[in-house]
Design brief:
With about 375 residues, the chain is an alpha+beta fold. About 20% of the residues lie in helices and about 10% in strands. It has seven helices and ten strands. The strands form three sheets. It has a five-stranded mixed sheet.
Length: about 375
Amino acid sequence: MVQARTGRLRERSISSWHGWSTITREFQPLSPCPWQQRCSPAIQAFRGGFSLVELVVVVAIIAILLALLLPAVQAARESARRTACQNNLRQLAVALLNYESCSGRLPAAAEVSEATNPTTCTGCWNPWAEARLTSFMSGTKHGSSWILPVLPFMEQAHLANLWDHSTNVLGNAAVAQADIPSLYCPTRRSGIRIDRDDHKNLVNANWRGGGTDYGGCYGRLDGFMNDTSLDHRFTDINTPVVGSNGRRQGLFFPNKGRPLASVIDGLTNTIMLGELQRLRPVAGATSAAKTYNRTSQDGWAVGGVATLFVTATDPGHSNPGGMNNIFFESPGSQHAGGCFFAMVDGSVQWLSEFVDCKDNNSVFPRLGSMADEAIASLATAGY
């Protein structure tokens, strides 16, 4: 059987000795249902596409599935970021302990000589001002942090070799504004965030790198001056904290590295490192709580509060205590519910925001001091 272009079907057969005969009959076009006489109405109706209602239902189901899936994906990503942050802190702790093994003591909190009223104010060093000086005698000013001498133990020896020790942080701008990925918490940032004004917390607001989200523990004392006009410099180490008993100093101290043997409260129960808050003042505000008390300093190369924190609860000096408290001296993180801290034994522990910090003799403040002879245990810290 052959179909002709005219739409007619020609059938050829051998019918008799008369030869070939051609029988032509009308050809019916192919129907969507070839055997319409045997197709049910339901089958014939199925030939149509999706209705609008069906399409809306499908889209709604997909939207519901996505709404259920996205929080789980975000939670998984945050879990991975928290693990990376914890690992960053652990590696920094290991680097510090390796430095101590080689030198016999930890690095000084800051290398600084610029001071305010040194005859009447004990330890009132100003590393921020010293780090920014532009004119001084070679080798006399630095303002650098404890991270600088630890760089070779962080696999950053190339940066350490480039540092010019005859000048200060500003004089080493090319090195000081280099980003070290392991010093950023991946939950918060991977570098300086211009849209969040992070650069305004640096020694030079034109820098676009060199930040850090981790710092050393200075103790449970009033560590730094609140007023930014005083550069958040170190306070007098003898400044009293109301209701505080025992010695309050932490593992780090300006111009003087401490050996691990000086930690008499237990290596597992003394904080060495932790996460830092990164705060900016509220635009247009005038109160202390919304201006200089919530203005951070930043930069891994700079000594002082840029690379240190305190665990004190000190309402007399506006410090409410704890963490994530929107106060520039206290630790804090971008993680929900708490922070990671590295203890002197090298372990990294998660501490909840609900840790006991009701006064300066409670658990969290005492975890920050190394020799107050009143041991605070992680077992009672609520972590």
